[in-house]
Amino acid sequence: MWGAQNPLESSLGQKNVDYIHQTVRKTAVHTDRRCDTGSVLDLLADPYARKILTAANEEPMTAKALSEACDASLPTVYRRVATLDDHGLLEEETVVDPDGSHRSIYRTTVESVRATFDGDELTVAVDTRDELADNFADLWSDLRGGD
């Protein structure tokens, strides 16, 4: 991705880059106390929830655009969006247009989902995008001239 040398390494040093990656990794793991393993798996088993996550992963979308992309009614989309948001799998952002009108757009926060067995216990870990890390990456890209 960076070619021969990562620009972070050259400006911060490898030790600091490793620390940043470890810190980002720790903050990127989403553990939501409001949901248990069963509810996450049930939610991911729902075809509309999966379609919404997939569509909103491509680009942020309004509920109407999600409805069209997922071939689902608006009430179905709003119910799934609320549940996905409650579980930290989707985030809502309000966009204000130049004319002053506003609308909500939704984007997927999920990077990966892992299910592990430890003895007789099933654990589900959801890795989410770390917005701070994303913002830092965008800033770095802008500073470098938009590579």
What this model shows, in words?
It is built from seven helices and five strands; from the N terminus they run ααβααααββββα. The protein is an alpha+beta fold and 147 residues long. The strands form two sheets. The protein has a three-stranded antiparallel beta sheet. Strand 2 and strand 3 (102-108) form a beta hairpin. Helix 4 crosses helix 5 and helix 4 crosses helix 6. It is flat. The N and C termini lie close together (10 Å). Residues 1-12 and 16-34 have low confidence and may be disordered.
Number of strands: 5
Can you tell me the residue ranges where pLDDT is under 50 for at least 5 consecutive residues? 1-12, 16-34
Spatial gap, N to C terminus: 10 Å
Distinct helical segment count: 7
Widest sheet, order of strands:
1-5-4
Structural class: alpha+beta
Strand count, sense and barrel status of the largest sheet are:
3 strands, antiparallel
What share of residues are in beta strands? Answer: 15-25%
C-alpha Rg (nearest Å):
18 Å
Overall 3D shape:
flat
SSE sequence, one letter per element:
HHEHHHHEEEEH
Mean pLDDT: 76
User: Roughly what percent helix?
Assistant: 40-55%
